[in-house]
From TrEMBL:
Protein's recorded name: Aminoacyltransferase
Species this protein is from: Absicoccus intestinalis
Xref: InterPro entries: Acyl_CoA_acyltransferase, FEMABX, PG_Glycine_Bridge_Synth
Family affiliation: Belongs to the FemABX family.
Entries under PANTHER family matching the protein: LIPID II:GLYCINE GLYCYLTRANSFERASE
Length: 409
């Protein structure tokens, strides 16, 4: 057999192969092991006559009783049409896994079940996938099924993705363009940078965590990402000058009050409209003053929304986002998302992934992302390849119980 399996592929060879492959993904980059440094790892690959034809970053989690589990996030990277190659890769990986007392190998390749716009939700999308399922069955892998909820798998099975197609920006929905104009009228500006913006970005993520009652990541993790990917990591911050906005609100209040004071008594409809505008303006002014009290009465820009993204090869992953909800009507996220897409495509990315969505495509996150004309990528899902079959059955049960307890908390 010409194939040769290796567990320590050099970085240059590894990243060159993954970046050029159609299944390229950040989570299979060489440096992702540095981000997940609480796991052990090996850089696996298969050579065919000295040519690298498969690669996989395998993360290794130490379990009780000196056992382990292997996880290949969004991988391995290889030609899944080549049944012989798939079989050889997992046969050899399983051999290595046995030496590490591994219970099972979990993997979730970026094999697309289908790609479609949200409004074109495709019910008959599994027929072309059967050949891959048959291949996985032959190697002994257990498919977790076509799950629908983000919480059902380690990585989302559905993601919302914007592709660099001709006229992508001109073809944005009219209401999205209108909301970007609203942001411009509010003097929202977008700045880009790296680690120097982490403090402001972390504050926004913390506010989002509190609002949505979810646990995301902390400042140290964001710094780790940016240091690990110094050439591809970027933070986008939407900023506005609250001092300037407060001054404009005060001037508007004086103008509205003056117009109201001089309005004839018989113009009741206009009076109601002016009173509504005045109440709205007072609400804005109150919120601006609260922010000024928090940050100081200085003529400076305040971060109100942010995104952290990483480019890897021809891909861009928009990993984390946060927003100060007090500035929701400024629509900062619409402007900064478009800036993110523009940045990615100018750097040669084929797509910019906004992240996972629920398979029902009717949740709030999906509806927000639909404002950017995305394509829904639906992946084949998650597989477990048992290594120690008797203990695998027990570990499956323990894993299910652990997941249910987490959901109950």
């Amino acid at each position: 057999m010409a194939y040769q399996f290796e567990t320590n592929i050099p970085q240059d060879a590894y990243d060159t192969f993954v970046k050029k492959h159609p299944l390229c993904n950040l989570l299979q980059s060489y440096d992702w092991a540095k981000v997940k440094n609480n796991w052990d790892h090996i850089y696996t690959g298969v050579y065919d006559h000295q040519e690298l034809v498969a690669a996989g970053l395998v993360l290794i989690k130490n379990l009780p009783l000196h056992m382990t589990m292997f996880y290949i996030p969004r991988g391995p990277i290889l030609d899944y049409e080549n049944e012989r190659l798939v079989g050889y890769y997992f046969q050899e990986l399983k051999r290595i896994a046995k030496k590490r007392h591994c219970l099972f190998i979990k993997f979730d390749p970026t094999l697309h079940v289908n790609d479609y716009a949200s409004k074109d939700y495709n019910e008959n999308r599994y027929e072309s996938t059967q050949k891959y399922l048959d291949t996985m069955k032959k190697i002994g892998a257990v498919h977790h099924g076509f799950t629908m909820n983000i919480a059902d798998t380690v990585q989302p099975r559905f993601q919302s993705n914007v592709y660099d197609t001709e006229g992508w920006e001109e073809n944005l929905p009219k209401h999205t363009k209108r909301l970007i104009k609203d942001a411009n009228r509010r003097h929202v500006e977008i700045v880009t940078g790296g680690i120097e913006l982490v403090d402001e970005f972390s504050r926004l993520v913390e506010m989002t965590e509190e609002r949505k009652r979810v646990a995301l990541r902390n400042k140290e993790y964001f710094e780790k990402l940016l240091k690990t990917y110094p050439d591809g990591g970027v933070i986008f911050l939407a900023k506005c000058n609250v001092h300037r906005l407060a001054q404009e609100a005060k001037e508007k209040k004086a103008s509205l009050q003056n117009e109201l004071d001089n309005l004839p008594e018989n113009m009741k409809k206009k009076r109601r409209r002016l009173e509504d505008q005045l109440r709205s303006n007072d609400k804005d002014l109150k919120e601006f003053n609260e922010v000024i009290e928090e940050f100081g009465d200085e003529d400076k820009e305040i971060a109100i929304a942010g995104i952290l993204s990483i480019q890897y090869g021809p891909t861009c992953e928009m990993l984390y986002a946060g927003m100060d909800q007090r500035f929701k009507k400024f629509m900062p996220q619409y402007k900064e998302y478009v800036e993110n897409f523009r940045w990615a495509f100018e750097r040669g990315c084929k797509w910019s992934n906004m992240g996972g969505v629920e398979g029902s495509l009717d949740d709030g996150l999906t509806k927000f992302k639909d404002n950017f004309n995305p394509i829904i990528n639906e992946f084949i899902g998650e597989f477990d390849l048992p290594v120690n079959k008797p203990l695998f059955k027990l570990s499956e049960k323990a894993y299910t119980i652990a997941k249910s307890r987490v959901k109950e908390q």
